[in-house]
Amino acid sequence: MIEATKIRGREIDRTPDLVDLVTAARDAGHEVMLIERPMPDAVSVAAIGRALDIVAAPRGVALEDALGHVTDFEPAYDGNQIRAASRLWHRISSSDALAVGGFAYRPDREPSAAWSGFPALLFRVPALAVMRKRGRTFVVAAAPDAEQLLDLPSWIVRAPAARKLDVTPVRNPLAWTAAVQTAAGRLRAGEAEKVVLAREVVARGDGVVSAGNVARGLRAAYPACFTYLISGADGTAFAGASPELLVRRTGRYAFSQPMAGSVARGGTDAEDERLAAELSMSKKDAVEHRLASRFVVDTLRPFSSSVSAPEPEVVRFTNIQHLATSVAAELRDPAADVLTLAAALHPTPAVGGWPRAAADSLIDELEGMERGWYAGAVGWMDGRGDGELAVALRCGLLWEDGARLYAGVGVMPDSDPELKFKALLTALT
Known about the structure:
Shape: globular
Largest sheet: 12 strands, antiparallel
CATH class of the largest domain: Alpha Beta
Number of domains: 2
Structural class: alpha+beta
Radius of gyration: 21 Å
Number of strands: 26
Helix content: 25-40%
């Protein structure tokens, strides 16, 4: 169990910029994680260093100390690593404990290839966490002298930053188009109702691609989205700006906002309104969205005394508009913790398809890439079971002078995946 005396939480007067904080820490060689949503009632967390890790392991999840030694293990009896992580966290956490991390699209499989620096699931109790909550700032220290990390000097990157990118698709565009057409035909034949196929492009820069600058650019360009940055064990970093909340749990209440169905932004307010009206009236998008929203409502019901879901609305982001449904639930006593809810919800039809097994079979056969943490989840949780997890979308896996960028298309058949690459391409430079 995490000893309560080793977890020290307190409010501070300082209001450090969290992106600057994790950038300085990463430049100094520390492992970092960041999940930030700069909205009035949101919680943002920066994590520096490592005290404990809950990490995916064969047939379960392991608890590792700061040196990587396994000190505990929780079997995944039903094959679900997220539920196993929930049980382990419940057993070892104290009320003041805070963990940050996430999991892959397939938490039961270890990511391969470019994702070798990321396990299938990782939630970390950092040496130091800085939490911003409704304008107030708190620090939670889980290691001696951890608060000294607040005063790390900013590192000056002397190599020139990338000013332009050479972007190439990993998969031949004709092969990608054929895969989408094949998926549509298989859906018409009744194999599934929907499948989401993802693709990746490689962006190589003419200079350094700074993970901190990417996170800073994403936050500035997409202020209503979750900005996230997670460093990999191999020196890579996973960064993105996601519009979609998988689940938030606060005491007896849970909230989710599934999104499915999208259209571009217009050049003027009038064009915005016209496109939004077309999206609201689109039968194809209505069917696609209803799959996702009904799934979330039906999934939360067994945990809840009541679930409410109004009609979908059009939500606008910098370069795209989505159909979204705000689902609110009052949880039964004892209230399920955030990881238990996430285990039931992930993956939603918005990022995988429906039914799950049939959609995942089509993804394995037709997608032709390793998703890694793309379309997984990133976020935080505390020792009381509260927390917030965003769907890991609009994202890229960064290295020193480039990135792999990921975007998906809901095949019912089609939406425009090019819109979803623009977020990262802009922030990289």
